[in-house]
Design brief:
Layout lengths: L1 E3 L2 E5 L5 H7 L3 H4 L11 H8 L7 E7 L2 E10 L2 H7 L7 E8 L9 H17 L3 E4 L6 H9 L3 E12 L2 E11 L8
Parallel strand pairs: 5-6
Antiparallel strand pairs: 1-2, 2-3, 3-4, 4-5, 6-8, 7-8
Organism: Brevibacillus porteri
Protein name: GNAT family N-acetyltransferase
Keywords: Antibiotic resistance
Length: about 180
Amino acid sequence: MIHAGDLKIRALSPDDAVHLVKWLSDERVLAYYEGRDRPHDESLVQQSFFPEDDGKTRCLILYTDKPIGYAQFYPLDTPEKQLYGYVKDVVVYGMDQFIGEPAYWNSGIGTQLVTAILHYLHKEKRVQKVAIDPQAWNERALRCYEKCGFRKVKKLPLHEWHEGSMRDCWLMEWTSPADKTRD
């Protein structure tokens, strides 16, 4: 689906559940995604990542052909658009991702990944804006998103449940370049 150098992003398949179980039972990964109090077994992975069609495009991330993470993107529905203030915007997507192999953290792959997905969404889906809502304490994610062209729009107090409490998040947005929306 998406290729950028050594990075490949393809549709998630049922055989990929084994990777998700591994990553989402690793406390290092859970500290950032889902929470260490929510380790995933096969059943929870099936429920969370392989539901009936809900409009999300779920993907496996490969680096030099090795599975290293997960990404998803989706058009925001009307309640999400209203919550985030995008009622007038036509094509707004949300996205989430994580690198599940800690050996690949802090190497620039996250920035490459987010940039590749943004390029795909802009060119293939004609997306005008992409919204993400990382937890406010996750400095590494915030830096990555800012490098990719996201900007902080507003703080979302007590927005997401993580490890036993509601956490503040940032609404961040990427807007397609005006000169590219005309082609």
